[in-house]
Amino acid sequence: PRGTRMPSVAIYGDSGMGKTMILEKFCDNNPSRFDPTTGVQAIPVLAIEMTGKPGERRLYAGILAALGAPQAPRADIVQMEQAALRLLKTVGVHVLVIDEVHNILAGSYREQRVVLNTLR
Hints:
Elements: H1 19-29, E1 33-35, E2 40-42, E3 45-49, H2 56-66, H3 77-90, E4 95-99, H4 109-119
Parallel strand pairs: 3-4
Antiparallel strand pairs: 1-2
Helix pairs in contact: 2-3
Protein backbone atom coordinates (compact mmCIF):
# COMPACT_ATOMS: atom_id res chain seq x y z
CA PRO A 1 0.00 0.00 0.00
CA ARG A 2 1.13 3.49 -0.74
CA GLY A 3 1.20 5.82 2.21
CA THR A 4 3.43 7.68 4.58
CA ARG A 5 3.68 4.79 7.03
CA MET A 6 3.89 1.18 6.02
CA PRO A 7 2.40 -1.39 8.40
CA SER A 8 4.87 -3.54 10.30
CA VAL A 9 4.88 -6.56 12.58
CA ALA A 10 7.47 -7.55 15.16
CA ILE A 11 7.74 -11.17 16.24
CA TYR A 12 9.35 -11.36 19.65
CA GLY A 13 10.26 -14.37 21.72
CA ASP A 14 13.05 -16.19 23.50
CA SER A 15 15.71 -18.05 21.57
CA GLY A 16 14.51 -21.37 20.18
CA MET A 17 10.81 -20.44 20.18
CA GLY A 18 10.41 -20.71 16.39
CA LYS A 19 10.55 -17.09 15.22
CA THR A 20 12.81 -17.90 12.29
CA MET A 21 10.65 -20.90 11.42
CA ILE A 22 7.60 -18.60 11.24
CA LEU A 23 9.49 -16.24 8.93
CA GLU A 24 10.65 -19.11 6.72
CA LYS A 25 7.10 -20.48 6.50
CA PHE A 26 5.82 -17.01 5.53
CA CYS A 27 8.44 -16.78 2.80
CA ASP A 28 7.60 -20.29 1.58
CA ASN A 29 3.91 -19.35 1.40
CA ASN A 30 4.79 -16.29 -0.72
CA PRO A 31 7.32 -17.60 -3.25
CA SER A 32 8.91 -15.64 -6.04
CA ARG A 33 7.64 -16.30 -9.54
CA PHE A 34 8.76 -15.44 -13.05
CA ASP A 35 6.50 -13.13 -15.05
CA PRO A 36 6.96 -14.06 -18.72
CA THR A 37 5.23 -10.89 -19.94
CA THR A 38 7.71 -8.56 -18.22
CA GLY A 39 10.66 -10.94 -18.06
CA VAL A 40 11.06 -10.12 -14.37
CA GLN A 41 11.31 -12.45 -11.41
CA ALA A 42 8.59 -11.15 -9.05
CA ILE A 43 9.63 -11.37 -5.40
CA PRO A 44 6.70 -10.43 -3.14
CA VAL A 45 8.58 -11.26 0.08
CA LEU A 46 12.30 -10.61 0.52
CA ALA A 47 14.04 -12.00 3.59
CA ILE A 48 17.37 -10.77 4.95
CA GLU A 49 19.24 -11.28 8.19
CA MET A 50 20.56 -8.28 10.12
CA THR A 51 24.29 -8.65 10.55
CA GLY A 52 26.00 -8.60 13.93
CA LYS A 53 27.46 -5.14 13.24
CA PRO A 54 24.62 -3.08 11.82
CA GLY A 55 24.98 -0.10 9.57
CA GLU A 56 23.32 1.54 6.61
CA ARG A 57 25.88 0.13 4.16
CA ARG A 58 25.46 -3.40 5.54
CA LEU A 59 21.67 -3.12 5.37
CA TYR A 60 21.73 -2.13 1.70
CA ALA A 61 24.39 -4.77 0.98
CA GLY A 62 22.14 -7.40 2.56
CA ILE A 63 19.16 -6.30 0.48
CA LEU A 64 21.18 -6.26 -2.73
CA ALA A 65 22.67 -9.67 -1.96
CA ALA A 66 19.22 -11.14 -1.25
CA LEU A 67 18.08 -9.79 -4.61
CA GLY A 68 21.07 -11.41 -6.30
CA ALA A 69 22.34 -8.05 -7.49
CA PRO A 70 26.02 -7.52 -8.25
CA GLN A 71 27.63 -5.01 -5.94
CA ALA A 72 30.34 -2.54 -6.80
CA PRO A 73 32.89 -2.77 -3.98
CA ARG A 74 33.47 0.98 -4.00
CA ALA A 75 29.83 2.04 -4.28
CA ASP A 76 28.84 4.78 -1.88
CA ILE A 77 25.73 4.73 0.29
CA VAL A 78 23.70 6.82 -2.15
CA GLN A 79 24.46 4.45 -5.04
CA MET A 80 23.61 1.42 -2.90
CA GLU A 81 20.37 3.03 -1.73
CA GLN A 82 19.32 3.92 -5.27
CA ALA A 83 20.14 0.43 -6.56
CA ALA A 84 18.29 -1.27 -3.69
CA LEU A 85 15.18 0.91 -3.99
CA ARG A 86 15.10 0.53 -7.78
CA LEU A 87 15.41 -3.25 -7.59
CA LEU A 88 12.89 -3.58 -4.76
CA LYS A 89 10.38 -1.74 -6.93
CA THR A 90 11.29 -3.61 -10.13
CA VAL A 91 10.79 -7.07 -8.61
CA GLY A 92 7.68 -5.99 -6.71
CA VAL A 93 8.75 -6.54 -3.13
CA HIS A 94 5.78 -5.90 -0.84
CA VAL A 95 7.23 -7.27 2.40
CA LEU A 96 10.79 -7.00 3.70
CA VAL A 97 11.45 -9.61 6.38
CA ILE A 98 14.42 -8.87 8.65
CA ASP A 99 15.52 -11.74 10.85
CA GLU A 100 17.72 -11.01 13.88
CA VAL A 101 16.69 -7.34 13.80
CA HIS A 102 17.73 -7.04 17.45
CA ASN A 103 21.32 -6.89 16.15
CA ILE A 104 20.65 -3.21 15.51
CA LEU A 105 21.24 -2.77 19.23
CA ALA A 106 24.88 -3.85 18.79
CA GLY A 107 25.63 -0.51 17.15
CA SER A 108 26.16 2.86 18.75
CA TYR A 109 23.16 5.10 19.39
CA ARG A 110 23.95 7.02 16.19
CA GLU A 111 24.23 3.79 14.14
CA GLN A 112 20.93 2.57 15.59
CA ARG A 113 19.20 5.80 14.59
CA VAL A 114 20.62 5.68 11.06
CA VAL A 115 19.51 2.07 10.49
CA LEU A 116 16.08 2.64 12.02
CA ASN A 117 15.55 5.78 9.93
CA THR A 118 16.65 3.87 6.84
CA LEU A 119 14.04 1.21 7.55
CA ARG A 120 11.32 3.83 7.83
